[in-house]
Amino acid sequence: xxxxxxxxxxxxxxxxxxxxxxxxxxxxxxxxxxxxxxxxxxxxxxxxxxxxxxxxxxxxxxxxxxxxxxxxxxxxxxxxxxxxxxxxxxxxxxxxxxxxxxxxxxxxxxxxxxxxxxxxxxxxxxxxxxxxxxxxxxxxxxxxxxxx
Length: 148
Description:
Strand content: 35-45%
Mean pLDDT: 91
Number of helices: 3
Number of strands: 7
Number of domains: 1
Helix content: 10-25%
CATH architecture: Alpha-Beta Complex
Order of helices and strands: EEEEHEEEHH
CATH topology: Nucleoside Triphosphate Pyrophosphohydrolase
Largest sheet: 7 strands, mixed
CATH superfamily: Nucleoside Triphosphate Pyrophosphohydrolase
Low-confidence stretches: none
């Protein structure tokens, strides 16, 4: 069995009235190892010798053009799952952080074909995977906005 590790961020920004918006990226099936397209967070593989935060900064810059991320102290949420790719079973660990940006302008890489900024309840509905929704719920509780 193959093992993989990724790191990502639940990226958010504050609106003029203080409301919080979350960034979701659209992953088309043609460019990823999923049979279907999906909405998810910024994330990518941890490269050899690279730390999780460095991975998140690199991936955010590559995928969205965001370079001003401020990480929220005390939030680190790992997720573990299995998936199949090219007939092989892969065990993946993905670690997510909360990161705030002041920038709402996104420059997408070729990996994604769309992005959206949404409130917590709307973003939770838009997320494609149950494990992402669970971690997103934890982030909402951490920010004291879950259920608002």
